[in-house]
TrEMBL record:
Name assigned to this protein: DUF1543 domain-containing protein
One Pfam family recorded for the sequence: DUF1543
InterPro entries given in the database record: DUF1543
Top-level taxon in the UniProt lineage: Bacteria
Domain DUF1543, residue spans: 20-69
Gene3D superfamilies: 3.10.20.10
C-alpha cells in the first residue's frame, strides 16, 4: 500500500560557524514522513553545512476551514483559486532586547487578501508604530514595533507538485 504524501512545516535551527546565536528558518516539504525530508532540508540550508536540527514541526493537514491534500498537478481535485500562504510577522517590544515572531498559515485567493488576514491578528494589532526600533529610556507600556519580514511566502509550488 502506498503511503499518503503529507505537507510538513519545519522550523530548522543552526548556529553557523562564526555566529554567536542560533538562527532559524522555516522549511516546507512534501513527503511520506519527516525522516524522508532530511536530505531536502540540508539542501534548503546549504550554509549550515548539514549541521541543522529541528526545533519544531507540524504536519499541515488543515488550515482554517480547508483540508490540505497533496495531489498531482494535473489532478481535478484542485479547481479552487485559493492558495496557501505563509506569513512571518516580526516585531519588538520597547525596552526588550528580543525579536518576537508570529507565524501564520492562511488560505486566500491573493497575496493582498492573505496580508489583510494577517493584519487582523492580535500580534499585528498590538503594533503602534512601524518605525525602526530605537533605544528608549522611558517605559511607555506595551508598545510593539512590527515589521513584516518576508511579507508573504506563497506556497504556489505546492499547487504544481508532481511526484
Amino acid at each position: 500500500m502506498e503511503e499518503k504524501l503529507k505537507l510538513y512545516m519545519v522550523m530548522l535551527g543552526c548556529t553557523p560557524k562564526g555566529r554567536l546565536t542560533e538562527q532559524h528558518d522555516i522549511f516546507f516539504g512534501i513527503g511520506n514522513s519527516l525522516k524522508n525530508l532530511v536530505s531536502q532540508m540540508k539542501k534548503f540550508w546549504p550554509e549550515a553545512k548539514g549541521k541543522i536540527h529541528i526545533d519544531a514541526w507540524r504536519e499541515v493537514s488543515a488550515i482554517e476551514n480547508f483540508s490540505i491534500k497533496i495531489s498531482a498537478k494535473d489532478s481535478t481535485l484542485n479547481s479552487s483559486s485559493d492558495n496557501l500562504f505563509f506569513i512571518n510577522l516580526g516585531g519588538y517590544k520597547e525596552n526588550e532586547f528580543k525579536e518576537y515572531h508570529y507565524k501564520i498559515l492562511t488560505v486566500a485567493e491573493s497575496m493582498g487578501l492573505a496580508s489583510k488576514k494577517a493584519r487582523r491578528s492580535t500580534f499585528y494589532k498590538l503594533a503602534v508604530s512601524r518605525e525602526p526600533l530605537r533605544t528608549s529610556t522611558t517605559n511607555t507600556g506595551l508598545m510593539w514595533m512590527i515589521f513584516i519580514r518576508y511579507l508573504i511566502y506563497c506556497l504556489r509550488q505546492l499547487k504544481n507538485y508532481t511526484h
